[in-house]
Amino acid sequence: MAPTQGFNAVCISTEDSQMEFLEIGGSEPFRSYWEMYLSKGLLLIFVVDSADHNRLPEAKKHLHQLIETNPILPLVVFANKQDLEAAYHITDIHEALALSEVGNDRKMFLFGTQVTENGSEIPSVMQDAKDLIAQLAADMH
């Protein structure tokens, strides 16, 4: 799948609630919106391309800029494209993004993910991530 260009509304339903998420693309024109919407958010979900090694330093910089203003905002990182041969292992992503430096008071989770070709099959890790995100949002609400 292609990276998000612009804005994308996402709705996740669980047994007892429905949550709305705003996905904002990572390209330069949309970065100015990140902080404005993040200040109203309950958690940050940050998606990084595990196979794009050259852009990981830039991703690290932007991630740390986003989280520095709110030291308790929960963070969920999706290390996407784990199915590609060139993808960094999850431990390499942890190191490349300096996730050990996000703060001791912050709940932080890192998931290795991939999108299936037709998008119909939801891997179990994504179901686990969905459940976790629902719980984090409920805790922060």
TrEMBL record:
The keyword Ribosomal protein does not apply. The keyword Nuclease does not apply. Pfam families: Arf (PF00025). Keywords: GTP-binding, Nucleotide-binding. Gene3D superfamilies: P-loop containing nucleotide triphosphate hydrolases. This is ADP-ribosylation factor-like protein 9 isoform X4. It comes from Vicugna pacos (Alpaca). The lineage of its organism: Eukaryota, Metazoa, Chordata, Craniata, Vertebrata. The gene is ARL9.
